[in-house]
Specification:
The chain is built from ten helices and twelve strands. It has a seven-stranded parallel sheet, with helices on both faces. The protein has a five-stranded parallel sheet with strand order 2-1-3-4-5. Strand 4, helix 3 (80-86) and strand 5 form a beta-alpha-beta unit. The protein has two domains: 2-94 and 281-300, Rossmann fold (3-Layer(aba) Sandwich); 98-271, 3-Layer(aba) Sandwich (Rossmann fold), CATH 3.40.50.720. The chain has helices spanning 32-42, 56-60, 80-86, 98-113, 116-124, 148-159, 182-188, 208-213, 231-239, 280-300; strands at 2-5, 20-23, 46-49, 67-70, 89-91, 140-144, 163-167, 178-179, 191-194, 219-222, 245-248, 269-271.
């Protein structure tokens, strides 16, 4: 019985002995055509999935597949309706990345406020050049999406003496955030941190209209999903000084090589290569949870 792992890396090797495991042969995110070719070649009953596009086209041609275990939180890369119609069980790992992603949101914020990337670069060029930063204490932080990661992020900011506002269409009361409407969170936040899933309603939601409502001194933080942000509108907002800056770990297309790398906005943006959930401890938890979900799904399908 065969399964595949399509994440760019998967360190766990203690699979049950009756499972033949085939790993991602390219060691990177697979395209739609690549993952389809891989699945058709290997014909697995289950897979530990990364963020490759498991579209209806892919799933329809992979009728042999019974379980998809996402190594991560987001399920926007999986056509859930197609999976349900085809009888494919889909799991994710909502608990494992909470600490590492929330810590990344805080780290990006502090790095931006303290100008750490810039002064580090100057030091390595042999320049003793000081820059004035800003305090995090006393800032108003807006959390868009108050689920597990958003809540933990809110707790971290609160510990730094921030007023934490929250907006979530599914939550009215919250243990940490003062829940407000969208207009208030946009106009009052000094730091806006995104923790929403990608849906038809949220795709490209952070766009020119949003930047027009934000403070000129505000900072956008995105450790959630790249598709939440219209990257062209963000570039324009940064270049025109509509907002003070941004720090992104996720992008519409990855690896990223778009306009946000332009030298004209270097001092206004921090870019990292989708590593928020890649803390060693967090990754270990996430992989262990993904493996357990896969085995649970195979047992429930009477395959294992």
């Amino acid at each position: 019985m065969k399964i595949v792992t399509t994440t760019s890396s998967f360190s766990i090797n203690d699979f049950p002995t009756n499972l033949e495991v085939v790993k991602n042969p390219l060691g990177r995110r697979l395209s739609e055509d690549e993952v389809l070719e891989f699945l058709i070649k290997e014909q697995p009953v289950g897979m530990v999935a990364g963020v490759e596009p498991l579209t209806g086209k892919v799933l329809e041609k992979a009728a042999f597949l019974k379980v998809i275990s996402r190594c991560g939180v987001g399920l926007d890369s999986v056509d859930l309706a197609a999976a349900e119609e085809l009888g494919i069980k889909v799991y994710n790992t909502p608990l494992a990345p909470v600490t590492s992603v929330s810590e990344m949101a805080l780290s990006l914020t502090l790095s931006f406020l303290k100008r750490i990337p810039q002064v580090d670069s100057y030091m390595k060029q042999g320049q003793w050049k000081k820059m004035k930063g800003n305090l995090l204490e006393g800032k108003t932080v807006g959390i868009l999406g108050c689920g597990r990661i958003g809540t933990q992020t809110a707790r971290l900011f609160q510990a730094f003496g921030c007023l934490v506002l929250g907006f979530d269409p599914y939550i009215n009361a919250h243990p940490v955030c003062r829940m407000v409407d969208m207009e208030q969170i946009l106009t009052e936040s000094d730091i806006l941190s995104l923790h929403l899933p990608v849906t038809e309603e949220t795709k490209g939601f952070i766009n020119a209209r949003v930047f027009e409502q934000m403070k000129p001194s505000a900072i956008l933080i995105n450790t959630a999903r790249g598709a939440l942000v219209d990257e062209t509108d963000l570039f324009n907002a940064l270049k025109e000084g509509q907002i003070a800056g941004a720090a992104l770990d996720v992008y519409c297309e990855e690896p990223y090589a778009g306009s946000l790398t332009d030298s004209s906005i270097t001092d206004r943006i921090i870019l990292t290569p989708h590593l928020a959930s890649s803390a060693v401890e967090g990754r270990q938890r996430m992989e262990a949870e993904a493996l357990e979900n896969l085995l649970t799904g195979l047992r429930e399908a009477d395959i294992l």
